[in-house]
């Protein structure tokens, strides 16, 4: 039923699995011998983060933030709203922010600045998808990128449109008539 709303598949289930394994190995190498607080950005990153931390062979603590600048729209409003904050202090900790997709970078820039203010020891970013051509915040660096995607509206594997399509097992482009 959901598949009828998908124009094309960008990243298959198999490609997602291989990407998550690759990222897990890269992150493990970086954090070898350290503890890392993995901060998942809800809701889109939840599926990716669950798979990612299972591929990481290092000490991991997890927490979540729910931050929005979209609502039910397809374009960022530019206004960032914290819906759910972290449960634990980040002071002195090495942080890995896990995102489903980095678009303009505005929301991520806000989160990074907040965690720096809260005195995190270090902050690295891992994103399953990156729309680098849409980046407005030039000083946002994504340390671990799964897949670069074109400027199309993507859904699946946690990514949604109006809270739908998160359960697709791949990343697909949503037909424009669905969100227009």
UniProtKB/TrEMBL annotation:
It catalyses: IMP + diphosphate = hypoxanthine + 5-phospho-alpha-D-ribose 1-diphosphate; GMP + diphosphate = guanine + 5-phospho-alpha-D-ribose 1-diphosphate. Keywords: Cytoplasm, Glycosyltransferase, Magnesium, Metal-binding, Nucleotide-binding, Purine salvage, Transferase. Its main location: cytoplasm. Belongs to the purine/pyrimidine phosphoribosyltransferase family. The keyword Protein biosynthesis does not apply. SUPFAM superfamilies: PRTase-like (SSF53271). Residues 17-161 form the Phosphoribosyltransferase domain. Pathway: Purine metabolism; GMP biosynthesis via salvage pathway; GMP from guanine: step 1/1; Purine metabolism; IMP biosynthesis via salvage pathway; IMP from hypoxanthine: step 1/1. It comes from Facklamia miroungae. One of its GO terms (molecular function) is nucleotide binding. This is Hypoxanthine phosphoribosyltransferase.
């Amino acid at each position: 039923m959901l598949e009828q709303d998908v124009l094309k598949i960008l990243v298959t289930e198999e490609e997602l699995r291989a990407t998550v394994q690759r990222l897990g190995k890269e992150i493990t190498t970086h954090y070898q011998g350290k503890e890392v607080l993995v901060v998942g950005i809800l809701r889109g990153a939840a599926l990716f983060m669950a798979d990612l931390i299972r591929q990481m062979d290092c000490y991991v603590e997890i927490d979540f933030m729910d931050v929005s600048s979209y609502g039910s729209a397809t374009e960022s409003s530019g206004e960032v709203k914290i819906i759910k904050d972290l449960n634990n202090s980040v002071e002195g900790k090495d942080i890995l922010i896990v995102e489903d997709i980095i678009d303009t970078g505005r929301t991520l820039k806000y989160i990074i600045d907040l965690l720096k203010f809260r005195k995190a020891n270090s902050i690295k970013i891992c994103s399953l998808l990156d729309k680098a051509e849409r980046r407005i915040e030039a000083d946002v660096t994504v340390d671990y990128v799964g897949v670069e995607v074109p400027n199309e509206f993507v859904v699946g594997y946690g990514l949604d449109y109006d809270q739908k399509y998160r359960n697709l097992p791949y990343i697909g482009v949503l037909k424009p008539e669905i969100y227009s």
